[in-house]
């Protein structure tokens, strides 16, 4: 088995990673493809925790645009992440990967409540842990939840898996001449106000010296290459 650089990772997935071609809903085929990627990572003896987003089911800004209370919109988003967690758990279990879903909002009939030491124990036993419902509090994004959980479970790295292959000077879809960064410091990422992760999450990682790697989830073997120590995407660190 090849030597890996990161033994325990937290994978932050956007809700669109489970969406169908139109960007909405949960596509079972997408869930199965995602489960296969995660299974391959785990086969390298890497412990995997996952924080899913909710953009494929609910975007709070749409509610806010119609006058919805922020707390209500955020709680709806938290519930949407639990739906994504269950869909991903089902795909992983069918592929032979033992999985546990833990949620920051208690719903004991469908998932365990989030308990830090229990999550760590699951990881040590080789189970993939999916952490739903964000932090359980409104006004915090799932990016911030991913940073917080990374620290709590002592992850070696936070991997932000997106649709782009790193952080660019500009949106590469708008400007094809935009330059991709191989490395940014936390301060540079904060000053640039990079769109791939919010400032609260970056600040939390900076305060605790946790590296963030931004990469394209669907690039062949991108996460595999990262855990083996290759330069992939953009790394944000000291």
- The CATH superfamily appears as Acetylglutamate kinase-like
The helix content is: 25-40%
Amino- and carboxy-terminal Cα gap: 30 Å
Return Rg in Å: 17 Å
Structure, explained:
It is a single chain. The chain contains eight helices and eleven strands. With 238 residues, it is of the alpha/beta class. It has a single domain, classed as Carbamate kinase (3-Layer(aba) Sandwich), CATH 3.40.1160. The strands form two sheets. Strands 4-3-5-2-1-6-10-11-9 form a nine-stranded mixed β-sheet, with helices on both faces. The protein has a two-stranded antiparallel sheet with strand order 7-8. It is globular, with a radius of gyration of 17 Å. The two termini are 30 Å apart.
What is the fold's blueprint, element by element?
Elements: E1 8-13, H1 28-42, E2 47-52, H2 60-65, H3 70-94, E3 99-103, E4 112-113, H4 116-124, E5 128-132, H5 142-152, E6 157-162, E7 167-168, E8 180-181, E9 183-185, H6 186-192, H7 199-207, E10 212-216, H8 222-227, E11 234-237
Parallel strand pairs: 1-2, 1-6, 2-5, 3-4, 3-5, 6-10, 9-11
Antiparallel strand pairs: 7-8, 10-11
Helix pairs in contact: 1-3, 5-7, 6-7
